[in-house]
Amino acid sequence: MNLWEAFVALILGLVEGVTEFAPVSSTGHMIIVDDFLFQTKKMFSPEAAITFKIVIQLGSILAVVVLMRERFLNLLGLKKIPGQSTSGPRLNLGQVIVALIPAGVLYLLLDDLIDTYLFSTETVVIGLVLGAILMIVADRFGPREPKTVSLDQITYKQAFIVGLIQCLSMWPGFSRSGSTISGGVLLGMKHRTAADFTFIMAVPIMAGVSFFSLLKNWESITADVIPFFIVGFISAFVFALISIRFFLKLINRIKLVPFALYRIVLAALIYFVFL
Fold first, then answer.
1. Over the stretch 67-118, which tens digit does the pLDDT of each residue have?
2. What is the rounded average pLDDT of the residues 239-248?
3. Measured by CB atoms within 10 angstroms of the end CB, which terminus of the chain is less buried, N or C?
């Protein structure tokens, strides 16, 4: 790996880490930055470029595990959250699994179609706009006084419906966090609670998606691209650690509409300037 390739991996990792958990679509941003600045599909191969954009998200996911380790240990029954009732409701693995089923099934059915037809700047622009509309609707029509103010109050029904809405994020540009936070808000969750649940859901589903992407494109992962993947992974992990705390403080204060407006402005800029 030469210095230019290391720089490209570093920048794409930065883009991933900063945007993964903000409702703006990390995959969409990586596709846009890559298409206009780097063209990694020409540096390596189209298959390796797509796999890279998926796999480096594991760096961001690892950051979530580090920052929310107490909650994950609690889900596994290994640690009690301070102040958590022993007899009252508690978020458990069952609710997380229920939330993951819709997207998991749909991914297995549509994976090849997504990789072939949706990893382009044009489709990202569409996803940015449609996702922005959903976020504005959530802030406009969601309950004024959320009834679900903590993770332990999330029901199986809420978890399943949020999982269904998460399927929209398979369209690059729509945003996994944008769709799931919007779904949670519409179902009566506090913005921070919906964001926390989104982060928890992201860990198993992105681990699974990355595994299947690596398995499917294993032949394209040659020795010359492995250092590129490693630099991107580390970069995404470091910048995600920094950005997650900032985002969680921000989301309850400014809600979703400012992010939606950013998405619309970005989509318009790309369309009129580049497309």
1. 999 888 888 887 777 766 665 678 888 999 999 999 888 888 887 777 777 7
2. 89
3. C
Count Cβ atoms within 10 A of the Cβ of residue 184 and give its class: 0-12 exposed, 13-18 middle, 19 or more buried: buried
Q: Quick one: pLDDT at residue 159?
A: 95
Start-to-end CA span in the chain (Å) = 32
- pLDDT score of 87: 59
Number of residues written out for the chain: 275
Alpha-carbon Rg for the chain, nearest whole angstrom, is: 18
